[in-house]
Automatic annotation (TrEMBL):
This is Probable cytosol aminopeptidase. Keywords: Aminopeptidase, Cytoplasm, Hydrolase, Manganese, Metal-binding, Protease. Mn(2+) 1 binds at D286, D363, E365. Residues 361-368 form the Cytosol aminopeptidase domain. Presumably involved in the processing and regular turnover of intracellular proteins. Catalyzes the removal of unsubstituted N-terminal amino acids from various peptides. Mn(2+) 2 binds at K281, D286, D304, E365. The active site is at K293, R367. Its cofactor is Mn(2+). Belongs to the peptidase M17 family. It is found in: Cytoplasm. It comes from Caballeronia insecticola. Binds 2 manganese ions per subunit. One of its GO terms (biological process) is proteolysis. GO terms for molecular function: manganese ion binding; metalloaminopeptidase activity.
Length: 510
């Protein structure tokens, strides 16, 4: 899809070619009060009152979510007008804007329209700017057009008509809107990668496959990529990670991807260019291991690598945006399977940093692979480390499928992530991490137990990770409820790529 930005200050004369510019549709907003403003008013004049007549006839009330496609329009370059109801103007929030945008895209995608002119990003949205509106519209369209068809035996024959979209923006917003467009496309491309990796079946998307994906990403986007195998992981003493991997016939991989958008963090710049490290849980299938899961919906445990998938997607987005900062993606990846040689409840293992862990449940495996990756991350002297993981069913119980769980002892870092989450409309909610919860992880035999019982299960999981992340600013995102959808709409969401990308955009601007 080809997106572009063109400035236009409506009602100030020439309309910069928008009145005569050829397209298959121009999208115009109508508020409930029905007084036409901006683009809608200019188009009304140019069409000799067509839009006012439609509104007067009662065919477009301005009710939020309503749409009307008016065909065979004359007097302007566009051959159709798509009117979109916006609701009350003084309540035109980001949510109302998002609904109007999605309604418009749905109508267009359901038609034969190939070229669209889109004016809704110029509407006055409460607390939001024009560039935000462009990025949000791009992401909404890309979300609606995403399809996962690569495992179907016959190619998808429903070719899409929509090819070209021109956004009108106020000339004062033009520069920012162009940047937002570039960012929106990069984030959407990153999300598509995240969704594809999540949706691939676990017999295809294995640890080896993720290693190959990293190498390809490195070639395409000039990242420095290392993929460590069993022997090298052993040499690093990652006893905790390896204990999870050993029951599987698929070899584990430890992936490191480095994007250097700022200078090296050496010499005079030491500390100034310290990288942000993203750590992603890469369990390509979580059967539970010997503490095996019940059969229902177990197929969805192919999504247990969505943390890793979101790190891939974010690295891709960051590289495409060309952000001026250093970002490192670290992914421990393996399967969690039962076997004669698998990890057992009661086993005591030794993590890379020397901590001994009593494994009371082999299904609490995410923390066991992440803890060694968090220790490994120390070598980069990071400005911050953020891990992303489909870590606990308890997080789904606490927050459902709307908010990602955010855990951090660092108020500044947590605040930056929450700000990014709001800006990106990728919701996250901060949950506690008080030291009092650490008691639940006491073991009679080892330094630490790998589970803390049923109360506050996502908090104790985060507490476990915190023991390995004491040497740098750290935050943990539990995406168990937000990484994919179940039921008829089963599929990966691409979250939290928008949140992470926005966080990195903001960090690069510091
Ligand atoms: N990958 C799961 C968490 C999960 C479960 C995510 C369901 C999304 C939906 C994780 O490895 C796991 O099994 N966690 C256990 C921990 C428990 C044994 C302490 C859980 O949440 O039940
Ligand atoms: Mn598990
Ligand atoms: Zn898991």
């Amino acid at each position: 899809m080809d997106f572009s930005i063109k400035a236009c200050d409506w009602s100030k004369g020439e309309a910069n070619g928008f009145l005569t510019g050829k397209s298959d549709v121009i999208v115009l907003g109508v508020f409930e009060a029905q007084t036409l403003t901006g683009a809608a008013r200019d188009m009304d004049v140019a069409t000799k009152g067509l839009i006012s007549r439609v509104v007067k006839a009662g065919d477009m009330s301005g009710r939020a979510g309503s749409t009307l496609l008016v065909p065979e329009v004359t007097g302007i370059g566009a051959s159709r007008v798509l009117l979109v109801g916006l609701g009350k103007q003084d309540a035109f929030s980001q949510k109302a804007y998002g609904e109007a945008v999605r309604a418009a895209w749905r109508v267009i995608l359901g038609s034969k329209i190939g070229q669209a002119t889109f004016t809704l990003a110029q509407l006055p949205i409460l607390e939001r700017t024009g560039d935000w509106a462009v990025r949000t519209a791009v992401l909404a369209l890309r979300e609606l057009t995403y399809k996962f068809t690569q495992m179907k035996s016959k190619p998808d024959n429903g070719a899409r008509s929509l090819k070209k979209i021109v956004f009108s923006v106020d000339s004062a917003d033009e520069k920012a809107a162009k940047l937002a467009l570039k960012q929106g496309v990069a984030i959407a491309n990153g999300m598509d990668l995240t969704r594809d990796l999540g949706n691939l079946p676990p017999n295809v998307c294995t640890p080896t496959y993720l290693g190959q994906t990293a190498k390809k990403l490195g070639r395409d986007w000039k990242l420095k990529v290392e993929v460590l195998g069993q022997k090298q992981i052993e040499a690093l003493n990652m006893g905790s990670f390896l204990s999870v991997a050993k029951g599987s016939v698929e070899p584990p991989q430890f992936i490191v991807m480095q994007y250097q958008g700022a200078g090296a963090d050496t010499g005079k710049a030491k500390g100034k260019n310290a990288p942000i490290v993203l750590v992603g849980k890469g369990i390509t299938f979580d059967s539970g291991g010997i503490s095996i899961k019940p059969g229902e919906a177990m197929d969805e445990m192919k999504y247990d690598m969505c943390g890793a998938g979101s790190v891939f997607g974010t690295m891709r987005a960051v590289a495409e945006m060309g952000l001026k900062l250093n970002v490192i993606g670290v992914i421990p990846t393996c399967e969690n399977m039962p076997a004669g040689n698998a990890l057992k409840p009661g086993d005591i293992i030794t993590a890379m940093n020397g901590t001994t862990i009593e494994v009371l449940n082999t299904d609490a495996e995410g923390r066991l692979i992440l803890c060694d990756a968090l220790t490994y991350a120390e070598r980069f002297k990071p400005a911050a480390v953020i891990d992303v993981a489909t870590l606990t069913g308890a997080c789904v119980i606490a927050l459902g499928h709307h908010n990602t769980g955010l855990f951090s002892k660092d108020d500044a870092l947590a605040g930056q992530l929450l700000d990014a989450s709001r800006e990106a409309v990728d919701p996250a909610w901060r949950l506690p991490l008080d030291d009092e919860y650490q008691d639940q992880l006491k073991s009679n035999f080892a330094d630490l137990a790998n589970i803390g019982g049923r109360p506050a299960g996502s908090v104790t999981a985060a507490c476990f990770l915190s023991r390995f992340a004491a040497n740098y600013p750290w935050a943990h995102l539990d995406i168990a409820g937000t990484a994919w959808k179940s039921g008829a709409a089963k599929g990966a969401t691409g979250r939290p790529v928008p949140l992470l990308s926005q966080f990195l955009i903001d960090r690069a601007a510091l």
